[in-house]
Amino acid sequence: MMQRVALIDYGSGNLRSAEKALVKAAAGRAEIVVTCDPDTVANAERLVLPGVGAFAACMSALEARPGLIEAMSEAVHGKGAPFLGVCVGMQLLASRGLEFGETPGLDWIAGEVRRLEPADPAAKVPHMGWNALTDVSDQPIVAPLKAGEPVYFTHSFAFFPKDEENVTAWVDHGGRFPAAVARGNVAGVQFHPEKSQASGLSLLSRFLEWRP
C-alpha cells in the first residue's frame, strides 16, 4: 500500500509549489495529500509543515484549526511518523518565537527563533537568494547536501536550538545560523527545497525514504 504524506494546509503560503515539488520527488512512491483534517493528519505515514510569513501569525493559524496540533503530535510523537518543517514550518518547532513579541511554539525542539543580525552590514535582511551550506552533518536527509552546496533562502528570522547537536547544517550570512535541524523523527530546513532545484528535490526524496 502506498504511503500517505500529509502536507499540512493551515493557510500559510507556498503550499502549491511545495505540493508540486513533493509529487515530483515522490515519483509515484507516495500519495501527497494537502489537508488540515485532524484524522487524515493523525493517520498519515509522514507529515510536512510548510510556512511563509511571521512566526506569530503562522502559529495562531495552526492553533485556529481545531484538533490539528493534537493530530500532528499523535502522528509524530505517538506513532513515530517522520516530520519535515520547511522555513517557518521549521521555526514553529521551537519553544518560542521572538517576532512581534514572544509567541510560544510547538516546543518539539528546545530553542528560540530570533531576528538575523548580521555582523557584516553588506549582508542584507531579509536574507534572500542562494547561499552555500556549511558543516553538514551525517543526518540522512541532509548528509548528501555537501558543504558548499547552494540552496534557496528567503527569511528574516532563524531558529537557534538550545542544543547545537540538533543542528544538522549551518549557513553563513554575515554570521552563522542553522540551516537545518533534527531531533529523532522530527526534522526541519530553513531553506526552501521546492525552490532549490535538484538539491531540494533530492532532499525531499530522501525525506520520503527516511526511517528514523
What does this structure look like?
The chain has 212 residues and is an alpha/beta fold. It has one domain (3-209): Rossmann fold (3-Layer(aba) Sandwich), CATH 3.40.50.880. It has helices at residues 15-26, 38-42, 55-63, 68-78, 88-91, 197-209, and strands at 3-8, 30-35, 46-49, 83-86, 96-97, 103-104, 111-115, 127-134, 150-155, 157-161, 167-172, 176-183, 186-189. The strands form two sheets. A nine-stranded mixed sheet has the order 2-1-3-4-13-12-11-8-9, sandwiched between helices. The chain has a four-stranded mixed sheet with strand order 6-5-7-10, with helices on one face. A hairpin with a 5-residue loop joins strand 5 (96-97) and strand 6 (103-104). Helix 1 crosses helix 6 (197-209). It is globular. The model has no long low-confidence stretch (mean pLDDT 95).
Strand and helix layout:
Layout: E1 3-8, H1 15-26, E2 30-35, H2 38-42, E3 46-49, H3 55-63, H4 68-78, E4 83-86, H5 88-91, E5 96-97, E6 103-104, E7 111-115, E8 127-134, E9 150-155, E10 157-161, E11 167-172, E12 176-183, E13 186-189, H6 197-209
Parallel strand pairs: 1-2, 1-3, 3-4, 4-13, 5-7
Antiparallel strand pairs: 5-6, 7-10, 8-9, 8-11, 11-12, 12-13
Helix pairs in contact: 1-6
Offer a quick outline of the entry:
Its EC number is 4.3.2.10, 3.5.1.2. The chain has 212 residues and is α/β, with parallel strands linked by helices.
Identify the notable features of this structure and list them briefly.
single chain; 212 residues; alpha/beta; Rossmann fold; 9-stranded mixed beta sheet; 4-stranded mixed beta sheet; 25% helix; GATASE; lyase activity; glutamine amidotransferase; hydrolase; Imidazole-glycPsynth_HisH
